[in-house]
């Protein structure tokens, strides 16, 4: 057997690449290295533009040229870094050497020793991960998440009045509306959206063990913590003053926990939509040219929701592992986080793929009013709750002498099918007031939805 040409091992980089490639801009190795270059350049310019150690202040044109090179990081830099790292066997050191080369090309050799000044590799790495993760979250994942939430909100509003038989424990239960049930999901997701949007990105920039020791050895008079804070915050990150060699990763753990929570709500949605499709409450809109089954031509399989379900499980498992692992580091530093963090893109990638499938799937389904109505009409016994509750109110008001209304309705309805005629006959013979009797006789499973429709308004509350 001839060997295959090099192939992507992960389906995210193969079969599903088009759906997740936006994350690769930030959470790939190249995206990380671009951020590392940016941090190294910004740090040396931060020092040089203040004339630190008497350094010659670069001209505006020189600073702009260096920043432009850093932001235009591309294939040439990727290849050059690979060559450098093959010799250094150290990824961050290779970045430092790459920056030094560009300084020489731009006539800024006199600033070379400010490159990576007083930094440990983790100073560069944690800022770089903060930059890339923030960009990936706000530029790629959150927009996809909002697209799904918006589609669900639109569905909730459109179907707010559509009666539907509820099922608690898998059994027919007090009716609701389809829109209200979708609104429940939207409300849950909106809460997670707010929590995820509120996450900040802590970062440290304080040397080998978080003490600014090398900084103060070089200049004992400088306020290095204040300079560190200024530098970190100007990059849009939150300064962490108390760390070991590494930033403690608590912020990342919080973020991954919240995304995993959102994933699980979406997973609940995917399995419910799948179930509604299997019950006939939702129909699937045929897509031109699509095949539902390799052997059964009639089928339209709910693959969007099945794909989402599986990818949400994978994403949550990875995010849980990341959150659990990253908050632990032996003494002042171990290297486990280096390997772990390289899988952030994979974890978010599976979530992003699920969001893509959910967005597509929601556009390929339609509510089936006829099926909903038929199921409601076949389950008149769900009005037993309403009847026994009205009797209780009538007894309390002194308009009825019925003893134990619950037992009375239990005998009539539990485990039995009751027809409209059965209930009408039963209600007509009840010892209750005329107004209450009229309300019950007018009630149907389709109208017994309480405040379900108006509860949808709480999405805007």
Automatic annotation (TrEMBL):
Tree of life domain: Bacteria
Pathway(s) it belongs to: Purine metabolism; AMP biosynthesis via de novo pathway; AMP from IMP: step 2/2; Purine metabolism; IMP biosynthesis via de novo pathway; 5-amino-1-(5-phospho-D-ribosyl)imidazole-4-carboxamide from 5-amino-1-(5-phospho-D-ribosyl)imidazole-4-carboxylate: step 2/2
GO terms under biological process: IMP biosynthetic process
GO molecular function: N6-(1,2-dicarboxyethyl)AMP AMP-lyase (fumarate-forming) activity
Enzyme Commission number: 4.3.2.2
Domain Adenylosuccinate lyase PurB C-terminal: 329-449
Domain Fumarate lyase N-terminal: 14-308
Protein keywords: Lyase, Purine biosynthesis
Function of the protein: Catalyzes two reactions in de novo purine nucleotide biosynthesis. Catalyzes the breakdown of 5-aminoimidazole- (N-succinylocarboxamide) ribotide (SAICAR or 2-[5-amino-1-(5-phospho-beta-D-ribosyl)imidazole-4-carboxamido]succinate) to 5-aminoimidazole-4-carboxamide ribotide (AICAR or 5-amino-1-(5-phospho-beta-D-ribosyl)imidazole-4-carboxamide) and fumarate, and of adenylosuccinate (ADS or N(6)-(1,2-dicarboxyethyl)-AMP) to adenosine monophosphate (AMP) and fumarate.
PANTHER family according to UniProt: ADENYLOSUCCINATE LYASE
Name of this protein: Adenylosuccinate lyase
